[in-house]
Design a protein that fits this description.
It contains ten helices and five strands. It is α+β, with helices and mostly antiparallel strands. The protein has three domains: about 5-65, Nucleic acid-binding proteins (OB fold (Dihydrolipoamide Acetyltransferase, E2P), Beta Barrel); about 65-130, DNA polymerase, domain 1 (Orthogonal Bundle); about 145-205, Orthogonal Bundle (Helicase, Ruva Protein, domain 3). A hairpin with a 4-residue loop joins strand 4 (about 45-55) and strand 5. Helix 4 (about 95-105) crosses helix 6 and helix 7 crosses helix 8 (about 165-180). It starts with a strand and ends with a helix.
Length: about 210
């Protein structure tokens, strides 16, 4: 898996980018939100990436921020939303505007995005509502403090990546912390990311 690229920007023609890294040119596709942050041709750039492997192609997508890439990955999990539609969403609205449309169930705002019809908008509202709340919770946990809070946010992301629903992960981690008697910030710091994940998975077996 290619997680990021750092090199010289040698080509940009939305949605395509070309970044030269050690004499090798990598072709990427990126949303307009990323294009707005790019430097001039010939300057160095670093992008986070997502590699999509299909039977007929391997496509690399680039993002200026971790939030963009995370939203892109969550969008791909929505039925009927492919990479092209996900890029259109990131290009057509800001992350905040998209979250607001989801929270307010504003299908009209979503259908104004190219490639998003009414049925897709309705699926986005249903499937992205909990995920957006989970992303906000994880971001808040990561930003609130270092140590245990960082471990909790990392454990949360890992469990979601393993396929657990956001609400289930929140419940599991709260149970782990409560059971360990470490409800204070000092106590949470005693648990590593691995500790939290292991205990959460063990609790699912006991259930």
């Amino acid at each position: 898996m290619i997680g990021s690229l750092a090199g010289v920007l040698t080509g940009k023609s939305p949605p395509h980018l070309l970044i030269e890294v050690g004499g090798v040119g990598y072709e990427l596709e990126a949303p307009m939100s990323t294009f707005y942050e790019l430097p001039a041709l010939g300057e160095r750039v670093r992008l986070l990436t997502h590699l999509l492997v299909r039977e007929d192609a391997q496509i690399l997508y680039g993002f200026a921020t971790g939030a963009e890439r995370t939203l892109f990955r969550h969008l791909l999990k929505v039925a009927g939303v492919g990479p092209r539609t996900a890029l259109a969403i990131l290009s057509g609205v800001t992350g905040a505007a998209f979250a607001q449309a989801i929270q307010q169930q504003d299908t009209a705002a979503l259908t104004r995005i190219p490639g998003v019809g009414r049925k897709t908008a309705e699926r986005l509202i249903v499937e992205m509502r909990d995920r957006l709340c989970a992303l906000d919770d994880a971001a808040g946990a990561a930003a609130s403090a270092a140590g245990g809070q960082g471990a909790e946010a990392e454990a949360y992301s890992a469990l979601v990546a393993l396929g657990y629903r956001p609400q289930e992960v929140t419940r599991l981690l709260k149970g782990v912390i409560a059971a360990a008697g470490v409800a204070t910030a000092v106590g949470v710091a005693a648990l590593t990311t691995e500790d939290l994940i292991r205990r959460a998975l063990q609790s699912t077996v006991r259930e």
